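Moderator note: this is an archived Q&A kept for reference. The question asked for a predicted structure of one protein chain; the sequence and the answer are reproduced below.
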Amino acid sequence: MPFFNHAIETLRRSEIEEMQLKLLRAQARRMYERSPFYHARMREVEVMPDDITRLDDVRRLPTTKKTDLRDNYPDKLFVPPLEKIVRYHVSSGTTGQPTVVAYTRNDIEMWSESLARAFASTGMGESDVIQVANGYGLFSGGMGMHYAGEKLGATVLPAGTGNTRRQVQFMMDLPVTCIACTPSYMLQIAEVAQSMGVSLQDDTRLERGILGAEPWSDSMKAKIEDEAGIKAYNCYGASELSGPLFTECEAQDGIHVWGDMALVEIIDPDTGEACADGEKGEMIVTMLQKEAMPLLRYRIGDMSSLSWDPCECGREHPRLMRLTGRVDDMMVIRGINVFPSQVEHLLYEVPEVGKNFQIVVDRVGNLDTMLIKVELEPEAFTDDILKLRHINRQVADGLKAVLNIKVEVQLVGPGTLPKGESEKASRVIDKRVM
């Protein structure tokens, strides 16, 4: 079984937890001394860094939520001085306010190290060629995969997104063994390859895909592996934490979370009590070595369970089992985070729009689609086709600017859409998980 950092990856649980306690104490001290935000939060709950004497004491520390990122936009959560920050990435926020994430040089190094270990755990090495078909730029996916591939010693092809026929041609012309992209785009590539008369299994050297940034089911994974003839490895991360960070190993029995980089808790979202190993609950993540924007007990919103059982691969770092949903209303559409509150914020700025809307997410072919059904005010719902087209275009253009993806808009009459007992139930229909 290949390793990238043998000394760290083969630590036993007791050694990992001992290291986590030391790193947690150091991180808490650093945040208390250098972050006005966390200094105030710790004083509010009357917990000082020196009060952390056991790993379980992490639960005495305050949590951080997505609203804290919005309220402290753009840089009030940053810790080091500007001259120590070497990069920004930006992702969408809950109301259209973006989340800006900063990185020091060491943050970039640790991010690359995390994914390089992950790549090695899937069997990749210096002889591999990885085609990065994630987005480059403000989205953190492409850059994370790129730097990790180079750190591993593999050859990197920075293909970026789109131009699918060219993606297939690259795989035919170059000795590409791995591709990094979203699951839905992997299926799109397989479909386009078939239309070109190309068998990814027979006409290329492609062996594996590092896939993530959107929800996908076991059946979709099986379809990808069957149509592309590859092993599909699940990848997990978030821009707030760094970007893509962790993957499954060759055993494909959960996603390894490197214990020297992240401390993951699973709690009951209603009571806040800790869940037992293997019990499903809400994930809380503390990044133990991140410098520029070190989030303490970040309620990332994903539901999962954590297993400390030794893995077949020989690693005892804890594993996230399959994610089972979210505790908030965030959706991931073609790799982009979308919140109903973003849609609401934009719609309420259009005078002709009423107070009710519905989001319908589906997967047509291999790509995610999003339809926004929008109720109009009574006086706006007329037979003036030109006026209705103008409203539709205004809403569609506004949503595209806020969400960074193209959506379809359907205008409907007042009182048309159902009103459920909760915003989630009445306003979001995700047919991808039905």
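Archived answer notes: The CA atoms of residues 264 and 285 lie 5 Å apart.
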